[in-house]
Structure formats: structure tokens, C-alpha cells
Amino acid sequence: MSKINSYSVVAVPKLTDKLVGTSIDGVPADVTYNFTLQQLLNLFSANFSASTIIIGSVPIYADNAAAVAGGLAVGQIYRTGDALKIVHV
Fold first, then answer.
1. Per-residue pLDDT tens over the stretch 32-78
2. Closest Cα to residue 84, out of 68, 61, 65?
3. Is the peptide bond before 28 cis (omega within 30 degrees of 0)?
4. Are the C-beta atoms of 74 and 89 separated by less than 8 Å?
5. pLDDT tens, 12-29?
6. HSE-up of 57 (CA within 13 Å, CB side)?
7. Where are the domains of the chain?
8. Nearest of 75, 77, 70 to residue 89 by alpha carbon
9. How far apart are the C-alpha atoms of 73 and 63, rounded to whole Å?
10. Chain centre to alpha carbon of residue 49
11. What is the spatial distance between Cα 80 and Cα 59, in angstroms, rounded to a whole number?
């Protein structure tokens, strides 16, 4: 098997692309298997709750223009006081 850094990089992964994992508590234990990105997304979606989100550090800006001037890109978050905001065009 080749070293992982010798494989080509795909610019945009597809939900049908496969990953490799190990089943820790399966029978038998420690079996290596493959799964798709879609299966991983389904697992996250079924087990994710917005109440579990912890945002450790968010930059503070006066408004959207200041956030953009500060280097944030569209889609990144910032806050103004207690209000959490998303950079937009």
C-alpha cells in the first residue's frame, strides 16, 4: 500500500467518495471497513443537536463592513456584543 501523501488530492469531494475506518466495538473487534461521505453525514445528522455547539472564540467587529475589512470571508462568523453574525456580501 502506498503512503497516503502519494495519493492525488481531489479538489471537491463527492458524497459517494469512500473513507476507511475501524470498527472498535464491532464483532469481530477492530475490523477495517469503508464507508461513504454520505453515510458519515447521515451519522452526524442523526446524532447532532444545536444545543451541543460550543463556540470557543469569535472575533468582535462593529458590523459586516468592519468584519470584511478585518479579513473575514463570506460565511465566517463574528459578533457584535452578544449578537452572533455571519459575514455576507
1. 999 999 999 999 989 888 888 888 899 999 999 999 999 999 999 99
2. 61
3. yes
4. yes
5. 999 999 999 999 988 888
6. 0
7. 11-52, 54-89
8. 75
9. 13
10. 15
11. 9
Quickly tell me which residue has 452526524 as its cell: 44
Instruction: For residue 23, give the amino acid letter.
Output: S
**pTM, rounded to two decimals:** 0.52
Place of cell 477495517: 32
How do beta strands 31-36 and 77-80 pair? unpaired
Residue among 59, 69, 14 at smallest CA distance from 37: 14
Q: Which of 81, 79, 86 is nearest to 57 (CA)?
A: 79
Record the cell numbers describing residue 74, joined without a space. Answer: 463570506
